[in-house]
Amino acid sequence: RTIPFAWNLITAGYVEQTIPGVIISIIGLLLFGKLLEPLWGTKELSKFVFIVNFSTSMCVFVTAIAVYYVTQQESYLYTPLSGFYGVLSGLLVGIKQLMPEMELNLFVLKIKGKWIPSLIALISVVVSFFMKDLVSYLPVILFGIYMSWIYLRYFQKRLETGLKGDPSEEFSFSSFFPAILR
After folding, report:
1. What crossing angle do the helices spanning 42-71 and 138-150 adopt, rounded to 10°?
2. Are the beta carbons of 110 and 104 closer than 8 angstroms?
3. By residue range, what is the domain housing residue 128?
4. Which pick of 12, 16, 124, 182 has the fewest CB atoms within 10 Å?
5. Number of folded domains in the chain?
6. In a structure prediction context, what are the per-residue pLDDT tens digits for the chain, which is 182 residues long?
7. Domain assignment present for 181
């Protein structure tokens, strides 16, 4: 229903369909924003959230239409695809970029910041095979990771250098994968 209502591409990321989704989104934004805002500033963080949200929504929309045309199953057109998970996964990419060696304690595991987006992508794919209700979140999360990487890699203005993007080898797309898969 996005075609006559184009603003859905901007607002879909800010609409959660469940109470747990709202809680996860708020906590995630507070935690990840607390790490990134001092380094980026409020204006850049807001710009990042808007750009990642919009580009993720565009990609999810185009993918849903493409999958519909391939499968001819109308459920792909009418499944509500919304939520802040694309931006949250994008903020994790920001943490990967700025704090790759920072260790985060996740229950009993200590995981370096550089592996968190990849781990979230892997967990999302695996869980979507077993829990069909969560499949609709998968494109939002994966496109959120990819769109945020594109923005940070090629378009974000770096305050310290005045250049755009992060051309470092540590932030290349292949750095999202273990060395054996690169």
Report:
1. 130
2. yes
3. 7-176
4. 182
5. 1
6. 566 677 788 888 888 888 998 999 999 999 999 999 999 999 999 999 999 999 999 999 898 889 889 988 888 887 778 889 999 999 999 999 998 888 887 777 888 888 889 989 999 999 988 887 778 788 999 999 999 999 999 999 887 777 888 888 888 899 888 878 87
7. no
Judge whether 37 lies within some domain: yes
- Does the residue 110 lie in any domain? yes
Residue length, the chain? 182
DSSP 157: B
Model pTM score: 0.89
Locate 81 and state its tokens.
Answer: 């695809």
Whether 144 maps to a domain, the answer reads: yes
Q: Where are the alpha helices (DSSP H) in the chain?
A: 8-11, 19-40, 42-71, 75-78, 85-98, 116-130, 138-150
